[in-house]
Structure formats: C-alpha cells, structure tokens
Amino acid sequence: MSNRDSFDICVIGAGVIGLAIAYELAKKYKNQDVSIVILERESSFGQHISSRNSEVIHAGIYYPTGSLKAELCVTGKELLYSHCEQFDVPHQKIGKLIVAKNTEIDALAQLKKKAIANGVLDLQLLNRAELQRLEPHIEADAALHSPSTGIIDSHSYMQSLLHLAENLGVQFSPYSRVEEIDTEADAFVVHCRLDENRNSEQYQFNCQQLINAAGLEAQAIAHTVSSLPKNTIPRLYYCKGDYFGYRGRSPFSHLIYPMPEANTAGLGIHATMDMSSQLKFGPDTEYVEEIDFEIDGNKAEAFAKSISSYFPAIKGNDLNPAYSGIRPKLSALGEAATDFEIQGEGAHGVPGLIQLFGMESPGLTASLAIARHITERVVL
C-alpha cells in the first residue's frame, strides 16, 4: 500500500441518491472508525437530475409489481415523509388526481389494481361529480385520487441529507471529477481532477468500497473502472423533459395527471406545484443525443394542446418556459420501460463495487429506501 490517502467508502455523485447513501452508511457505521467521502464534479450537490424534476413524492402506482421501482418507491415514500417531519424539510401531502375520459375508465380501474398489488392501498375512484367538487376546472369523466402523493422542496431535502451526513463525519468533496479507477488486490485507486477550471490538480486516494451513484455520468464512470467487464455496463439514453410555468394563480388544489399512455417514456404532461404554490406543467419526453437544458419556447402551444385534454381553459400564452431535465433512460425510444439497475459483485465480478444505473423517477421518492438497500450490501 502506498502513502496515498485512504477512505473506507467512496460515494461518487452528490445527487439525492448519493447523499442518501452517504447518510445511511454514516448512520450504520457511526460508532466505528469508518471514513466516507462523497465526490461531486460540480460546485455543489444535486445540480442535474435531482434539481430538475417535478419534486413529487410518488405513491408507487405505475411501476410493475415486484420491480425495484415499485418496492423502493412504496417503502421510500414512508421513509421520506418521516424524514421530512423529523428534520423540518418543507413538504406537503397535497394529493394527486389521475384523470380519465369515459374510454379510459377500464384502464383507470386496472391502474388501481396494479397500485394495490404494489401496496398502495389508499386510492379512491371518483366519478365525474365527485371530481368536479374537488377540481371544478378539470374536464374528465373519472379520476383516481391518491392522497399519499405529495410535493417536496428537493433542495432543502438534499441540504438536510448532506448536513446530517457531515455531522456523522462524512467528507464532501465538490469540484472533484473522477478520471480513472484502478483496482488493486484490496482497494480501488481513484484518480480525480480537483478544482477543474480553477487551480486544477490531480489527486489519488484508495478506498475499500466504491459506490457509483453518478446519475447521468454513471455509465461514463463505470467505463473508467479498469477491471470492470464493459459488457456489464448498460447503454444510456438521454430523455429530455421540459417544464412550463403557468402565468397566474393555480386553479388546482391537487396535482393533476392524465392517464399514462402505453409504452411512453413518461407519465404525460401533468400539473404540479412547488412549495410556493407555483403551478407548472411537464415534463414532455424527447430523446436527445447530448445534455442540453435549453427550452424551446415555441413548444408552449403544443403543451397547451396536450394539457387542454383535461384543462380546457389553458392557452399557449398562459405558459412560459421554466426549466428542463434529462432522465437517464436504459430503454430506447419505443422500448418498454426498464427498472432501476443496481449491480453488485454478482453482476460484474468486481468485489467492493456497487453501481446504480437508470436512476430516474421515482428516484427522489425512493432515495432513502435505495440508500438502505445499498447499505445492507456494504460489508467492511
């Protein structure tokens, strides 16, 4: 062993999942002399997927029964609400309505059945009159009411995770870009570039356990691991989603979702609110070749047309570009949606390495459940 710095555990990526993993690991080993570092290439935490989403706490309705997405979403939702209560993270159990036309009512009932199989037991089917009483501006014939769906201030949540982790001794290292990872007999050697674009310097350290939670960069990080069989790295597809803000006061008191279309990359352009009650619509889905967060303002009319299926009063000039995000898909356009992919030694043959791929929605909701799932697999 060289004189390099050494950590027991390195987590790559300070998005919501990486931060949750570091926090859960720090709790697991808090009475032991275990060192944990989080590497983040940006200047701060949560700059990509974690801060560019709907900020919805999902119930666990849509995902295939028995999938990691279904199990970790349902468990994670309860853990997340509990965390928010305990640590004063701004959130609101606002509830969601999945709205349907007459021709979609059978599909809505099937959706309820799937949700029950996933362990979501609080859903109520509403008829047109019941829906009108709750949301008079919505045009639909039926709805599924999910009272356990909510919204969260994701930045405050990530801040709480980092603060709690650091209080338990975790070191946070921003401006740290991983360039190469070598494997030695009993350790990984992580080669980083620190303070890129400023006083750039190289830095190497050893670690026993390596957790790749780098989100959009997870596949790129995996390709730098010297001993990793490259055929174990799933292909990454960028799927962009734009959000438009609504000019004026929100006419809704719940989140409003259309029925999901079969085999689409998202859940349809839905209405969601942030903690300041600002209404926004999105995301749409567009497969792209590179990461680009620019929004085409000309999309407003197309958005309005889609939204008008359940909110007829909407007009294109009611909308203004808000922000966009990129989902790290493991399925190509038109292919069936895929599950989270969490790989340990059994999948790739590299002891001490855990990799997370395709960590899109419901990653925010599931973050603490994902973290516990990972923490159980880490043995020092």
UniProtKB/TrEMBL annotation:
Cofactor needs: FAD
Gene3D superfamilies given in the database record: D-Amino Acid Oxidase, subunit A, domain 2, FAD/NAD(P)-binding domain
GO molecular function: (S)-2-hydroxyglutarate dehydrogenase activity
Native organism: SAR86 cluster bacterium
NADP in keyword set: no
Lineage of source species: Bacteria, Pseudomonadati, Pseudomonadota, Gammaproteobacteria, SAR86 cluster
Annotated signal peptide: none
Protein name: FAD-dependent oxidoreductase
Keywords assigned: FAD, Flavoprotein, Membrane, Oxidoreductase, Transmembrane, Transmembrane helix
